[in-house]
């Protein structure tokens, strides 16, 4: 009887095959040297592609915000005429929230943000979103509709990234520019182009035009308004503001020098805090003193002195000084350190309180009308878009108000560049108006059928 045969494993051959297979596998895996070489090659290729535009965007992108401006609007439906004409009563009002998108940029770590006036006008709430998706509520502190500029304030929990302010008096036709913004809701979109021209004029309407604009072919779309136009160094040279809708690649930006000239008034401690300090600084280069008045005249400070610090806070540009003043205590003394030639000098300024002018009296004296200031609640009962207004109660015969066509019952919703919301700000506006000045006004007329008509005109101060 024959038993089962047993095959013996050829271990020599088996281990030979296994060793060959493992060797092949090892040869196909990149070793540490090969991996390092591949990574170095990738970094070299990335470095080679790093252009000045990439570097400019990397230094500035975090200092750009997307702005969402929410408005509450009234909607009249197709039955409005039926209610107005047949039932002789105002049509029912429906309210909708409408959110428009724009762009902006912080100019100071303390939370001061610049954008276009048309981005934030008549907004009931504002939200600023940074590149890291951090969101903050924002409020307007200055709106200059004439120049289409606004300054917002964000109360952040940290110093905010601020854009570097450049200059626009040395721009070159053909130089590269970069636009960053929020076109059509696409957050932090980057486009590039060149400066096509400078000192352009853009007519917005019969009453309004913007002058000395920068023209660029960098792609600008709805939502870019208020965003920065940068040079190749990542410095702000303009604020994107408008496009030609009937053309392609024709966009316009407000020069940064125009902004720098307006900022001392938009951030004025005299307007916002009713405190007189009496110093103005140059905005072009180092912050040297250009104007001395009021309490500063008693300190020994001289024109040309370079301001180094205030109460130990370093001042690198004029903007640092104005922002510090907005945050100081009402009774705070300003101990300033200045450079005068080779010497360092010190001085102390004691700010003076500015009396609040009587807005009602100034209205009568300058324009011949009496008006009642509406509270925000009263204004919203008329229209949810209103935050205030002046309800005209009487108009003097042959006064500037009568000649302008104003009547009892009209509601002034804009006077000058400001929207009247409280008596203090109204008085502050009117105190700077001189005889013969022509002041634009926007008036709301509410007719018997509930129709609201907006009228625009000018008042000439007497």
Describe the fold and architecture:
The protein has 4 domains: 60-154, Trypsin-like serine proteases (Thrombin, subunit H, Beta Barrel); 165-260, Trypsin-like serine proteases (Thrombin, subunit H); 268-353, Roll (Pdz3 Domain), CATH 2.30.42; 359-460, PDZ domain (Pdz3 Domain, Roll). It is 24% helix and 36% strand. It has 12 helices and 26 strands. The chain has helices at 11-28, 32-49, 52-60, 80-86, 117-120, 256-266, 269-273, 318-327, 359-367, 376-382, 400-403, 423-430; strands at 65-75, 94-108, 112-115, 125-129, 135-144, 149-154, 164-165, 176-181, 189-203, 209-216, 228-230, 235-243, 251-255, 275-276, 279-281, 289-292, 306-310, 313-314, 334-340, 343-349, 352-353, 369-373, 390-395, 411-415, 438-446, 452-460. The strands form 6 sheets. The chain has a 6-stranded antiparallel beta barrel. A hairpin with a 5-residue loop joins β9 (189-203) and β10. α9 (359-367) packs across α12.
Helices and strands in order:
Blueprint: H1 11-28, H2 32-49, H3 52-60, E1 65-75, H4 80-86, E2 94-108, E3 112-115, H5 117-120, E4 125-129, E5 135-144, E6 149-154, E7 164-165, E8 176-181, E9 189-203, E10 209-216, E11 228-230, E12 235-243, E13 251-255, H6 256-266, H7 269-273, E14 275-276, E15 279-281, E16 289-292, E17 306-310, E18 313-314, H8 318-327, E19 334-340, E20 343-349, E21 352-353, H9 359-367, E22 369-373, H10 376-382, E23 390-395, H11 400-403, E24 411-415, H12 423-430, E25 438-446, E26 452-460
Parallel strand pairs: 7-12
Antiparallel strand pairs: 1-2, 1-4, 2-3, 3-6, 4-5, 5-6, 8-9, 8-11, 9-10, 10-13, 11-12, 12-13, 14-21, 15-16, 17-18, 17-19, 19-20, 22-23, 23-24, 24-25, 25-26
Helix pairs in contact: 9-12
